Amino acid sequence: METLLVIEDDPGIQKQLKWCLADYDVVFAANRQEAITALRRYEPKVVTLDLGLPPDPTNASEGLQTLKEILDLCPNTKVIVITGNDDKDNALKAIELGAHDFYQKPIDDEILSVIIARAFVITNLESENIRLRQSSLDSHGFIGNSPQIQHVCRMVDRIAACEISTLILGESGTGKEVLARAIHDRSPRHDKPFVAINCASIPEHLLESELFGFEKGAFTGAHKTTIGKIEHANGGTLFLDEIGDMPYPLQAKILRFLQEKVIERVGGRQEIPVDVKIICATHQNLQQMMTEKTFREDLFFRISEITIDNPPLRERGEDIVLLARFFLHLANQQTQHKINGFTDEAIAALCQYHWPGNIRELQNKIKSAAIMADGKVISEFDLALTSVDASAQEKMPLNLRQIRDAAEKQAISKALTMTDGNISRAANLLGVTRPTLYTLIEKFSLNADAPSSTTQ
Ligand SMILES: Nc1ncnc2c1ncn2[C@@H]1O[C@H](COP(=O)(O)OP(=O)(O)OP(=O)(O)O)[C@@H](O)[C@H]1O
């Protein structure tokens, strides 16, 4: 049964509505505070709101304020405002503020029921639409639910529908190529090629012929005419990854191709028309490169008609766990291990970690943890994240012994904390004898004399 929130201070009308809205789970609220509490608790998709609420039921200001707060908290809620029979001005004001519909008193049960039922149909259709959009993104291997990534998804939808050059910015491993593919797959060009080239991975002297192709005899070794990546992408999408690494002299040639939509193969004289949607990506600071004159300003403006900032994983909150579960599912398919999930500590460790390598690093960590896990769940130890925090990465410890010592010290402290300083139980947890543990405590100058500790 759907939940309907009715914000109404008149007990008589409450009674009437309860009777005529028996098809719903009706929750009543008599003032703004109660309404917001009920909204948080029941998350109703549809709300009816009498604009005349206490403390001054003759004035609509409290009702309009309630409407604003509801839509601030839950923008997708369908609010049907109920006004006095000659209060059109406030009804229109409410619609301007985002109310779904209005209804003027006196209340006719049948008409109001139809308006409410229609609001439920619309809100359910909208949710279904969002779900379908989300699942079609999922089918492109694109996982994410955080508000940041939902914003990126909306941009992907819009960019896919039009011809606009797109620059995707983001740290390494944040999924820039995945985004570029999602744009292509959702564009009218989806049945034409998607061609990706990483400008940083191809030696400078080869990049030009790789991109533009070459005519037979253009240089030693050019035995036959070969078409380049740009021509391969004709009709589809060209993804220039790490555009910041494009050699300066080649930038001019790329700019000409983008402006005139023609290319010349290396060693050729003929202009060949090419029609591609262009998407570029970089983890570099192009603004700074332009100041340093290592990246052309005119090329920057040509490739960045719109810019997507792909957020780093550490800023994507809930997505970390969502992605971790997704990668665990993949790892289970690839290995014989069938891991059910993560311990609470493992989840906490995943959320706290800095993820310098972003989604790529998360994927690798989950895969190796799934292989290493002894039981049916992945523990924080399987993830091996604790010692690899951001500061530790910057400075390499002196040698292996120092690394081992640090790990031992950390494990002993943890065991002592977990057992409240109980030496016997800590020794059991660590798999060593009590004398060995005493020796180690002394070696690392650990404090085993916490007030609650009971050495047995
Ligand atoms: N939203 C996502 N859902 C699922 N997997 C993802 C997502 N984003 C990225 N990945 C995975 O993370 C890995 C890195 O993604 P990708 O290569 O697109 O990152 P990138 O930002 O282009 O990296 P680089 O800058 O190093 O080229 C890939 O294995 C990709 O499949």
UniProtKB/TrEMBL annotation:
4-aspartylphosphate sites (modified residues): 50
Domain Response regulatory, first and last residues per copy: 3-120
SUPFAM superfamilies tied to this protein: CheY-like (SSF52172), Homeodomain-like (SSF46689), P-loop containing nucleoside triphosphate hydrolases (SSF52540)
Alphabetical list of Gene3D superfamilies matching this protein: 1.10.8.60, 3.40.50.2300, Homeodomain-like, P-loop containing nucleotide triphosphate hydrolases
Keywords recorded for this protein, A-Z: ATP-binding, DNA-binding, Nucleotide-binding, Phosphoprotein, Transcription, Transcription regulation
CDD domains assigned: AAA, REC
Pfam families in alphabetical order: AAA_lid_14, HTH_8, Response_reg, Sigma54_activat
Domain Sigma-54 factor interaction stretches: 142-371
An example Gene Ontology biological process: regulation of DNA-templated transcription
GO molecular function, one term: ATP binding
Record-linked InterPro entries: AAA+_ATPase (IPR003593), AAA_lid_NorR (IPR058031), CheY-like_superfamily (IPR011006), Homeodomain-like_sf (IPR009057), HTH_Fis (IPR002197), P-loop_NTPase (IPR027417), PEP-CTERM_resp_reg (IPR014264), Sig_transdc_resp-reg_receiver (IPR001789)
Keyword field contains Flavoprotein: no
Keyword Nucleotide-binding annotated: yes
Name this protein carries in UniProt: Fis family transcriptional regulator
Originating species: Photobacterium ganghwense
